[in-house]
Fold:
Amino acid sequence: MKASNILMTVLIVVVVNLILYQLFWQHSTESEQVTESVYTRVADRGEVEEVVTTYPVQRERQSSNDDYQLTRSNAVTRAVMLTEPAVVSVNVIKTQIVRRYTNPFDNPFFGFFDQRPYRREVQSIGSGIIYNSDGYIVTNSHVVEGATQIKVILEDKRQFEAEIMGIDSVLDIAVLKIETDNLPTVPFGTSDDLLLGETVIAIGNPYAFLIKDSKPSVSVGVVSATQRNFSQDTGGKIYQGMIQTDAAINPGNSGGPLVNILGEVIGINTFIFSESGGNIGLGFAIPINRIIRVTDEIIEYGRKRQIWFGFKIQDLSPMIASYLELEDLNGVIVSIIEDNSPAAEAGLRRGDIIKKINNIMIRNSTDAEIAISEITVGDRIEMEIYRGQRTFSIEFDAIELDI
Structure:
């Protein structure tokens, strides 16, 4: 009896183990099938086929790690890697003449000679981009104007003395040259089709004289606005059609590139609006299409060629407007016209009212200066003229001023 009980117990244990094994095997199979079904549906939506697996736990963990590594490298980091080697630091030494004011009671001449001029050297810094492999570098003119010494530091810490090849002070563009070759370059995009809100990257060397590092820094933002126009500043510079961005631009960023998500330069960072001097999200860049036009001319001709317009203008006053029976003060009046000039031969006359230049509305002389600032030798100039109660158009070619 005891032997039969023992045999029965053994049989029960065996049967239970077989049942448990069967249940476990079915559950494992269902788990693998569910995993295959889920990943197959993911693959059907267009994702990478290699993620389909029959080892859900181990493969899923490995896939998560791989995905994490991949997400660290994104469009921004790839754009920076493409552009960074061509961004340089521009170190400048300028000589300023200042006057020292002394206490007149300490001066035996009672202040007649208390303003003593003396020279002092001032160090400043900006950024730039390598324009081509021949050693040409583009930056802002305000970075290098008045410089007695310019040193360019590359991303790989190489240093070169730089020479100014040409400056367009009005448009705030300067072209430098360093004597080396096989330099890294950067791709240029276009500033004609920018999208509001598209991601942009500002690269440069802010406060590099404090950080002591030639590696550029990076800030990310968006295109906040385009075609921002500003009146001529006290330095005679004209900023028109500027790109506005909220990417952080700080002292030392001037001359550095503004890059799109493809790693293409779309502008040159130039100035900010700020009461404190620090970034508040109002930065402005010169469009790259303008940079290319000016830079190519300076490289080819060694200078920005001056244009012979052959006329002078002045703003309309209420008295002039009343005399000419004008409805408003919009436009500028031609005050002087040179004989045999391109404008004169096209039909422009003294007393004409210029209403438009190349489809840009002219309200005053500032608008006229802005309209002609980007014209280069060989461009076609079109003007809308008001004369004697009628409006008509004239055209002529921009030719170089013979100095």
